[in-house]
Amino acid sequence: MNKSMWISFAFISVFVLLSLLGVLFGGDIADPIPKKDDVRYNVPNNVVFVAPQGKLEKKTDPESGRAMFVADQGFAIKREVPAEYIKQELDPCSDAKPPEPSMELKDVRSETHSGTLITGEAKVEEDDGQVLVRVPSGGTLVERTVSFSGLGTWLAAFLTLCILSFLYDDNPFYKFAEHLFVGVSAAYWMTLGFWTVLVPNLMGKLWPSLIARINPGVGDVERNLIYLIPLIFGIILLFRLSKKFGWISRWSLAFIVGTTAGLNFVAFLQSDFVGQIEGTISSLVVIHPETGFSLGGTFSAIVMVFGVLASLIYFFFSSEHKGMMGVGSRIGIWVLMVTFGASFGYTVMGRIALLVGRMEFLFADWLNIIIQ
What we know:
Layout: H1 3-25, E1 35-43, E2 47-52, E3 56-60, E4 67-82, E5 103-107, E6 113-119, E7 123-127, E8 130-135, E9 139-147, H2 149-164, H3 172-206, H4 208-214, H5 216-219, H6 228-237, H7 249-280, E10 287-288, E11 292-293, H8 295-314, H9 324-366
Antiparallel strand pairs: 1-9, 2-4, 2-8, 3-4, 4-5, 4-6, 6-9, 7-8, 10-11
């Protein structure tokens, strides 16, 4: 048996032992079997629920005492919106008011929602073989759905242990979790970038009428052919996939790098360079308008100024670091080490917080050994 098989056997054994530990000592280990569960949705005001006539039953909710409507074939959720105004020429000198717009029902979503409607105020009426339930003050829609939360918890625990197995050695379980994470992340960001960047910022500007059919809010602009330039650069960037014509993609890469550097230069100059200079040349004596002299603020300002000067002396190589220059250089080294140590400690603290979160998930959400 080779090393990979030994690691795989050890990993499976640890997974099984942890599961048995949760069964024996845990309160209630996560059930991986999908089960039916009630999901509650808040219903906004002035929503109309439509059900076939004779398929709606009115009851009373035993918990809240509010009205409860149960539809065997589900509800269609609609809203009452104004229809188009009646086109009628009116005398501008007449005092007659324009006709009120007629109201009609529009589908909020095309699918049918099966479940129970609980509301405190409802108006029920029948119209053309349908029952309309109006909820002026909103309510709660309870849907019975199949929950895969337990199965998802087991899958997340398995993948967490796959990643933690790298603490011993590289193994097939870690590689599987790593490839899965990279693939899912790449697909997610590709989809997000397509719908949030390409569709509104490129296609919505070049073909607004076409995009308006998919997303009315995105395509409601005038066509701007100047966006053909980024489209061409984007197509040129795809030449990177070709070995023979890959050099053409350098034009797009050069443009991207140059414009990004130029746009971010001013922002970084103001936030980092100018901001640090402004923080250094501030007053050494800090006086608050309300409390007066601040000993802590004054001490921090003095330490900031002398710390920056000492750090600059350490990087000043035009004169030898002797005498006062040597003292300042050594102080600058201490300032740099404290800064790097604090930054590293903050990073480690963040990583430890992630580890604690994963341990809490394993022993609380999965095995239920820790009671939250």
